[in-house]
Amino acid sequence: MHAPVSTAPPNTAAPADPVAAALAPTAAAASPGLVPLAPPTAWQHARHVLAENPVTLAAALLFALFVLTALVGPALVPYDPLATNAGAALQPPSAAHWFGTDALGRDIYSRTVVATRLDLGIAVAAVALSFVVGLPLGLAAGFFGGWWDAAVTRLSDTIMAFPLFVLAMGIVAALGNTVGNIVLATAIINLPFYVRVARAETNVRRSAGFVEAARLSGNSEWRILGMHLLPNILPPAMVQVSLNMGWAILNAAGLSFIGLGVRPPTPEWGILVAEGAQFIVSGEWWVSFFPGMVLMLAVFSFNLLGDALRDLLDPRRRT
Known about the structure:
11 helices, MetI-like fold, mainly alpha
């Protein structure tokens, strides 16, 4: 006799395990064949931000050129910026003098290049001082509120009540027209911008979910300010830094133009424009044109770099 033949299929699948089914995507993601995408590095993110906007890239290259000129330019100029030559006075641009010469025969190109270090130095020092002082004041005012907020806000409003350039003129006239006092006056008139930006951004985020989570995790108030709120307000603050750099250069040049800034014969863009203003009518246009053009390009590059700095520092844009 033959054994009874089973009608059941020989390889019947086992019933589905819900736990195994739930873990299947995790196991597949952890398999060697699937590699998760790594977040972009800072250099890759910077390349992406600069490549997607040609105008920003041009502004960044122009800014790099100004920084390089400030660092090594004074050592490479063809003439002494303070040396006079009465026989070569008011010569137009030529192969010997690319930007021409002024009324005392000094090479305008050499003076313009050497002035880059002074003007950028004043702008960087003034903006750094106002940033370091104004940002913590605004952070504390927006986070703690109360009398601290009222005091910081009144200080900011008092400074903003004056025409800022007139206030800078008064400070420099009272303290003396030295480079240190120009930096101090420029920092004071820029202080309210950082106070207001930091206060507004902190006031919006102080009750956000990540702040409450940090507080429930046992973080102190100062740690929340420094480790959680500060990184989130840096992008708009850095945009303000870029704008203030251009304003600081214009402020220093304006003070020198009216005689309250750097003292002649020190090369400075405002002084060079002021020295050439009297020769525009008589036809010697190059005396003020080239220093004024360099001043305009410097402010132009700083204003355009604001958006790039925001995109570079904002963690929400890091894709």
